Amino acid sequence: MKKTSIFFFAIVSIFFLTLCVEETEEDYTNTEESPKETYIDSPINTYKGRIEAQNIANTIQDPSSYLGSRVEAIGSSKNAVKQSNKRSEAQDKAMEALIR
After folding, report:
1. Residue 86 is part of which domain span?
2. Residues 6+ apart with CB under 8 A from 45
3. In terms of Cα–Cα distance, which of 91, 69, 100, 4 is closest to 83?
4. Does any domain span residue 28?
């Protein structure tokens, strides 16, 4: 009876020790945190801020200038189509001249 109680006590103590070890390992893995980014006022950060502000300012346009640029784009695309048509007509004439 004494031997079985000692054996039982040894098994229970080993069981509790393994539980405690696993909990401490979990605590160590859960305490790791990613480093937080801190803002440091350096020349690189101020340069990035100025570039970002400049990009935002460049995207803001007056509506009339936007419409003007769209009209110019339509006009230039019409000119490009006219030039393309002239080239294709010249190629057609050259092919007809070769065939004759």
Report:
1. 48-99
2. 39
3. 91
4. no
Residue 56 lies in a domain: yes
Whether 40 is covered by a domain: the verdict is: no
DSSP per-residue codes, 1-70: -HHHHHHHHHHHHHHHHHHHHHHHHHHHHHT--PPPP-----HHHHHHHHHHHHHHHHH---HHHHHHHH
CA distances for 33 relative to 28, 29, 37, 48, angstroms: 11, 9, 12, 27
- Nearby residues of 39 by Cβ (< 8 Å), 6 or more positions away: 45
pLDDT in tens, the chain (100 residues): 788 888 888 898 888 777 776 555 555 555 566 666 666 666 666 777 778 877 776 666 666 677 788 888 899 999 999 999 999 999 999 999 998 8
Q: Is residue 91 part of a domain?
A: yes
Task: Report the number of distinct structural domains present in the chain.
Answer: 1
